[in-house]
Write a structure and sequence with these properties.
Blueprint lengths: L1 E9 L2 E7 L15 H13 L13 E8 L4 E7 L3 E6 L7 E4 L7 H7 L30 H8 L4 H39 L3 H53 L11 H28 L10 H30 L10 H29 L10 H45 L11 H7 L6
Antiparallel strand pairs: 1-2, 1-3, 3-4, 4-5, 5-6
Length: 447
Amino acid sequence: MIKKIIIDNFMAHEHTELELGSGLTILTGGNNTGKSAVVEALRCLATNPVPSHNIRHGAKEARVCVELDDGTRVVWVRKKRSSGYELWKPGAEEPEEYWKFGRTPPDDIRAALRLDLVELESGDPVDIHVGNQREPVFLLNKPASNAAAFFAASTESAHLLAMQNLLKRQTTDAKRQARDLEGQVERIEGVIDRLAPLPDIELQVSAARELEKSAIVFEKTIPALESVLEKHLGLVATLHEKSECRAALDVIVEPPKINDVKSLSDMIQSMETVEKRLSKAVNGINALKGLGQPDVLEDTGKLATLVRSLDSVQNTLWKTEVQTACFEKIEPLPLLEKTSDLSAFIDELLSVQYRYSRVTRWDNVLQKIVEPPPVESTDALNDTLSAMHNLTSRITSATEGMSDLQNRLKELEETVEERINELGCCPTCGGKMTTATFIDQRCRHDS
């Protein structure tokens, strides 16, 4: 038993909810208020009719939901290209969805609604649940034979006759479906013929991919060539710099030889020692000149000390005389000249030695450097660059062609998807069929 009806975006109803009582429910109202739309919504829920203008203007889909007395909810969803059902069982968090099941509602939906038509031996099936707007209650405007067939539908013979009629109708329907399928096959073959350019498109895509691979190889080769050219230019610059250094060093003359000054240094040191001793001797002589006659000897301790001192002074004087005699033979010291020029010369000499050692190291390094390779002609590189420019233009044109082909492929996919949505399933085997599987693998029937 239906307790509640909810209608969304169906014909004139944007959102309508109807609570049904336990007895008889009557809908009243003026014209064009949506009474017939409620009845039509129940009919669509029960029979899933062929597509018509049921979706409210501006909406993407229409929904008709009924809530049964056991808590079950059945929802009929009508989209622009397909229709389906949602079955919400009591306590379920997610619905069971039914799509692409053909024209007849699924058995689970029919079992939940219990709004099936009654099949008669003669005449069309009778709807005992939903009536038409301008017709009386069922069978009142029908021949008596229909009423008799309806009330006799519960007997065994009626069931046999109904089964026989059903078999006849199924045979007729099968023939009609066969004719429809032949027409669908012709239409599908026409669609497949429209998809005939796909192999050429695939070949063009493969050629574009090969061109792309060639371009990638050239892109990887160019950095290596640039690195080799950069190294070559660096070696040429280094060789030019070394050549200039060597030309500058060739102008430098050999430095003069430095005489050994050790003997002169020893002589100067000896003269300083002699000068000190001579100064001490003169001081001693000057001290002795002031001495008078010695006094009476009384205590000889001091005299002994003085004698020892005199002996020491005498020895010193003797040594001084000897040294003086030696000094008289020594020629006078030469006058010391200014050493600023010598100092500058020594600094320049040290700088030259440093530069010489540095040039020697450079020469050792340069001797290990191999001769630079001869500069080859750049014609091959220019040909490569020309080929790359040609490949770039070809890649650009191929990319534009690929874009056009992708747009054409997208249009074909939309056409195929629209046709598949109209069919719902494979017309040959009844299996599930999608756009991706149809284009990539075709719908095969090996079994």
